[in-house]
Amino acid sequence: MKKLLIFALIAAFTAVLAGCSFNFTTTSTSATTFVTSTTSYTTGTTTPTSGTTIIDIDQIKADVYQRIYNEMYESIKAEVIQNISEDRFDEIYQSVMLDLLKRIDTGEITVTAKTVIDMIYEVVASEANAVIGVSAYAADGTTLNAVGSGVIYKHLDNVYYVVTNNHVVAEGTIYKIALEDGTEIPATLRGVDSLVDVAVLYFTSSETFPVAKFADSNTVQKGTIVLAVGNPNGYDYYRSVTMGIVSGTSRYFDINSDNVKDMFVGYIQHDASINAGNSGGALFNLDGEVIGINVIKIAATEIEGMGFAIPSSLVSDICSDIEIYGVSKQKPVLGIEFIDISTGRDYLTQELHVTIPSTITTGFYINSVVTNSTMDGYILPGDIILEIGDITIVNTTDFVTQFSSRYRVGDIISVVVYRGGSTLTLNDIELKQNPEA
């Protein structure tokens, strides 16, 4: 399929360069609906429940042709660029590709199940090999505290950088990279972002290891086919691969059911099976790029197929910070414990006997402030925060979504609070990282 399209495009380029128009068709086949069986596990157990997910053929086409598009670019360029500038080549290439995509949309060119399968095989045989094992040992070097997954994402000289989850390395003192043949390589922890749950290690080796590429996760859409690669339940299942689709983006959730969104990251939700040991492993698209780092799943008897990955664009920024500074400068922590007035007003007035003016219908009532956090020294227990930065508080979900996407450590903001019967504006507050980091 790929060779056919490359040949057709080279022919099209030849025609364009010769001043001719060019048309081609292929036999159209009927649309196909792919059905995959997925499995969901309760974390820490091996009891599966099965479900079924219908994959949208239109999204499959988008994934497949994006990869074909990327790979054809260099192949065609080598054939036709001899007598034209690179800018002219790009201009013609875009024109021909637009014509090709129109023909894809009208069904003149179709994607087959074999095309998708071949692309999955290619990812598994190449890019997926950048996923390795990460072992965290106690200080004695023999007691294994944690086993997880990691992704080699950077190579400088003979130094390799690996991203994993903070919770994989948090209980350890000594770290090792585990290879499929049982070999272990000593690794050094460069730094962590405990809020987002990212850690960066590095190791030195004269051997050559595959290096994964981060995708722009901001372009990820629902329905995108994904492959989760990691070490579920330990190294006996080294580099397992499961398949699913993106079920949603920018997902926030409440871990302890207290009506506060605990996870301040816009996660990628997917239904590829992940289990204990997959933590820190990669979520690939069919282009062989990492769109996320698997971190958590919702485990309940009435829920299946709900795994979450940290978006790759955020992971990439955090990794860059940790490489340079040893800490992440991405996600600030306000350091406030609060009750959302939009949902907790009755509780505040009836149970805690807090007096709230009738004119205040939204905001965060502050219970406490974390020492050395962003709000320490500015916000007091009993304050009602009305605005943070340029965000007017409506409810927790709305605030978390906006704040997470707009602000980074080091930004300077103002906060509007209601205190003692008056509304105050507190200026020049610098956003800080997690004081526990």
Order of helices and strands: HEEHHHEEEHEEEEEEEEEHEHEEEHEE
Would you tell me the overall average pLDDT? 79
Number of strands: 20
Percent of sequence in beta strands: 25-35%
What is the structural class? Answer: alpha+beta
**Uncertain stretches of 5 or more adjacent residues:** 1-53
Describe this structure as you would to a colleague.
This protein has 437 residues and is α+β, with helices and mostly antiparallel strands. Among the domains are: 2-30 and 56-125, no CATH class; 336-430, PDZ domain (Pdz3 Domain, Roll). It is built from 8 helices and 20 strands. The chain has helices at 2-17, 57-80, 86-105, 113-125, 166-169, 312-325, 341-351, 396-406, and strands at residues 34-41, 48-55, 131-137, 144-156, 159-164, 174-178, 184-193, 198-204, 225-230, 240-251, 267-270, 282-284, 290-297, 307-311, 336-340, 364-369, 384-388, 391-392, 412-419, 422-430. Strands 3-4-5-8-7-6 form a 6-stranded antiparallel barrel. A 6-stranded antiparallel β-barrel has the order 9-10-11-14-13-12. Helix 1 (2-17) crosses helix 2 and helix 1 (2-17) packs across helix 3 (86-105).
Q: What attributes does this structure have?
A:
437 residues, six-stranded antiparallel beta barrel, alpha+beta, 8 helices, globular
Care to give the gist of this entry?
The chain is built from eight helices and 20 strands. With 437 residues, it is α+β, with helices and mostly antiparallel strands.
What is the topological layout?
Blueprint: H1 2-17, E1 34-41, E2 48-55, H2 57-80, H3 86-105, H4 113-125, E3 131-137, E4 144-156, E5 159-164, H5 166-169, E6 174-178, E7 184-193, E8 198-204, E9 225-230, E10 240-251, E11 267-270, E12 282-284, E13 290-297, E14 307-311, H6 312-325, E15 336-340, H7 341-351, E16 364-369, E17 384-388, E18 391-392, H8 396-406, E19 412-419, E20 422-430
Antiparallel strand pairs: 1-2, 3-4, 3-6, 4-5, 5-8, 6-7, 7-8, 9-10, 9-12, 10-11, 11-14, 12-13, 13-14, 15-16, 16-17, 17-18, 17-19, 19-20
Helix pairs in contact: 1-2, 1-3
